[in-house]
């Protein structure tokens, strides 16, 4: 008589360690590379408007390629997709350090990041099971945000020495990510044999988006994570505008440190969500999204430096507690319906479209000379009203 081993496998198995290591290195490189490339543009006296164009090119790649990267992630072994995507990032960084067009090189990095994301999140459901998926998401989010924090500080420090030294470090880090991906076991494709017809892929992507949008839980996830990242990128620029006006402190050091406090808070919130929330209790995270918006409004209405650090850490904690369970829910239900890769691709499309829209609204608000406090209140209020409204709709449907 054969017996079945039902002993739960440890979360930090070989595959999970490899995925987490690769993700840390890849996110570190992405964060540091922005500052390194910006340093090259400044050194070569590119116009000021070109600086924001870098960020736009990175985001546009996510939006344009969203219909295709989900199928790529589900049609091949996800570990190998991650390896190739990091290789594309390495190529883009090498183009920049080689003195070629920095915009082309940075666009390649954006393409690599776009292909990497669905595979990174989709693989978690293949190497973990059950409630370990929430813990795995918490680990990945914490690793990502720690990498962003460290990468930003390292990138800013290295650029002051030499932009090309910073670029060399980025190349080395991306190469390390490729090596880490090699240690991920070769898993079977989730959906092999799919047709590679561009029109069909766009229609299939639209169908996947429709399926996910029609599901009550994944709709909340899509809207919630999109608002989170849209608000996050807006807050980054808002701090640069708010600090000299509210705190009377010039320069970029203080906004950078304040952004770092948000990242630290998100790591804490992600860890708390991994411990206290399961797939059956995902709705517990929604009030944190509402409180995040309230926190932004409270933040812009005060003018104390020490209080600013504390409030932004709390905002980050709310953010981490909010986004990890929503990511987990989308991956879980997406895997059951349209495939985890396709689900994350739809999510990336929504998140980056929201980022572009919010950056556009922010730019318009600044152009018409809207007071910075009013801008913060509007964006914080948008978060509160949007998440609160969707939550009320969800509660009514559950009661009905």
UniProtKB/TrEMBL annotation:
Pfam families: MFS_1. It comes from the Bacteria. Keywords: Cell membrane, Membrane, Transmembrane, Transmembrane helix, Transport. GO terms for molecular function: transmembrane transporter activity. GO terms for cellular component: plasma membrane. PANTHER family: MACROLIDE-EFFLUX PROTEIN, MAJOR FACILITATOR SUPERFAMILY (MFS) PROFILE DOMAIN-CONTAINING PROTEIN. NCBIfam families: PRK11195.1. This is Lysophospholipid transporter LplT. It comes from Limnobaculum xujianqingii. The lineage of its organism: Bacteria, Pseudomonadati, Pseudomonadota, Gammaproteobacteria, Enterobacterales. The gene is lplT.
